Amino acid sequence: MAKVKLTKTELKAQKDALARYQRFLPMLQLKKSQLQMELQGMRARADEITRQQEALRKEMNAWIGLFADESAKIPLTVEKVRLHSGNIAGVVIPIFDGIDVHREEIDLFETPAWIDDAADAAERLIALRAERDVALRQVELIAEELRTTSQRVNLFEKVKIPECKENIRVINVAIGDEQTSAVARGKIAKGRGKTSPETDAPSSLEKEVSK
């Protein structure tokens, strides 16, 4: 800890800093709680999307082998993943809106009957994958902000506020000691001022005795 100046100016600066830290700390604690709740919800959502992906893949396993046929190609192309921005406790995050896909027209006589179902399933699977990627990005951003906020809360609680309180105590003790010394010096100076030169000079009787 840096050496603090033992002055009234520094005392005011330390009191102002303490008031500032004590004012900001509850806001940081509230933000930390909010981030923790949001992070828990986002992780749960990412897990749910993963379960949906796994369930859809199991459904597709029943006929996935049919794609060994070269003519059985899904006429599906992903053009865009649609997103917009949201704000959680001051953190800008991406929010999934959906995907834009292009589905080619198929010849009903030249393609298997299950191609439409396969295209629908593939589109859902791609959308789930994109949504999960966005959900994981949200988790990453909120987790990083939570780490930063937690560090600030710990800094204020365990370092800055105790440090200011200790500095204020030390300065108050030093100023009190200085005031006590000043009073003592004043009394001494006042006592010396009452002693006149005539009182210190020897009297005529003392002179006669000394002879």
Explain what this protein looks like in three dimensions:
Mean pLDDT is 84; it is low at 203-211. With 211 residues, the chain is α+β, with helices and mostly antiparallel strands. The two termini are 70 Å apart. It contains 4 helices and 2 strands; from the N terminus they run αββααα. The protein has a two-stranded antiparallel sheet with strand order 1-2. A hairpin with a 2-residue loop joins strand 1 and strand 2 (91-103). The chain is 68% helix and 12% strand. Helix 1 (8-61) runs antiparallel to helix 2.
Key terms:
211 residues; alpha+beta; rod-shaped
Overall structural class, as computed from helix and strand content, comes to alpha+beta
Mean pLDDT rating: 84
Query: Regions with pLDDT < 50 over 5+ consecutive residues?
Result: 203-211
Count of discrete alpha- or pi-helical segments spanning 4 or more residues: 4
Query: Biggest sheet: strands, sense, closure?
Result: 2 strands, antiparallel
Please trace the helix and strand order, writing H or E for each element. Answer: HEEHHH
Task: Estimate percent helicity.
Answer: 55-70%
Span between N and C termini? Answer: 70 Å
Strand content: 5-15%
Give the strand tally.
Answer: 2
Shape field: rod-shaped
Global Rg: 40 Å
Arrangement of strands in the largest sheet:
1-2
